[in-house]
Each structure stands twice: as C-alpha cells, then as structure tokens.
Amino acid sequence: MITKISDFKNPFFIGVAGAGMSAIAQYLQGIGKNVSGSDRYFREGEYNKTKTQLEAEGIQCFPQDGSGITAETDLIVVSTAIEDTVFEVQKAKELNIPIIKRSALLAMIAESKKTIAVAGTSGKSTTSAMLFQILEDAGLEPEHYFWSRAHEDYQRRKNRQCCRGTRRVAYHRSR
C-alpha cells in the first residue's frame, strides 16, 4: 500500500500534460523519482510543448496506449478526468499496480514537509512567488512547487531548486 512518498520509485502519470499533473510529475522527478507518463495529446511525430518541457526535465513521455507502463512501474497516478475505462487504467489493474488520484498524491507531498498552500480566486501565483522570495531571503531554504501557465518560465527556474528546501512554499493549479 502506498501511503508516503518513499513507498514508490517509478510513478507513471496518465494525463501528465495537465497543469496539475505535470507540476507534480516535475516535482517527483526533481526529488529523484523515475517519472514517466502519457497523455492523449502526445502523438508520434507531432510537436507538443508540454511534452517537450517534460522530456527536458527527464520525464519519459508516451502516447496514451499503455506502452509506457512496464514491470518497473510501481504507481499509477490519475486525475479525476481519467476514467476507469481508459486502456492504461485497465492495464495497471491487470498488473496489480497501485492506482491513486492526483489529490491523494498531493496530500502525501504536502505531508512530507512543512507546507504553505495558497488558494483563492485571483492572485495565487503572485502570492506564491512573494512567499517564496520572503522565505528565501529569510534563509529558510524553501522549495517552490507551483504551476501557472502565466508564469511558466519562473516556475521552471524555481522547480530546479524544488528539492533542496525543508519547507514547501506553495502549490498552485491554474486552469
């Protein structure tokens, strides 16, 4: 049973191109997990910006056809958008690979370190960035874990230091 971050090494994300899923995948890759994933928008020979960015971070990306789920895969992560009828979910069940929702994995991540979470209608990205800078200037070695389409470059820069801190600043999901 998967109950904490140390319980798995090779997670596979079904729907990895989503804003929330890709942020979590990048975080796990940054802390040393061997992350891979698929998305229905990943097609052979077609450019996909998110796929290119994930692969640049060392995350293996596959079409959503089951080819990325291997004997080494020890956890499947799905969002609420992924239905049980998806072929990869069925394959994972046949192989007895544990399947958890993105929200459960996010809870495990939040429990693993002191966490400040930012939520609300507007201003989450700015508030998250400001909190990070305040904690960093105070010498508290925070990690910054958030995703906002409006702040992609900033997020990629800060994700590179996501694993060094003892405190997590914020999680932000933007639609």
UniProtKB/TrEMBL annotation:
Domain Mur ligase N-terminal catalytic: 13-113
InterPro entries membership: Mur-like_cat_sf, Mur_ligase_N, MurCDEF_pg_biosynth
Pfam families noted in UniProt: Mur_ligase (PF01225)
Molecular function per GO: acid-amino acid ligase activity; ATP binding
Protein name listed in UniProt: Mur ligase N-terminal catalytic domain-containing protein
Source species: Bergeyella porcorum
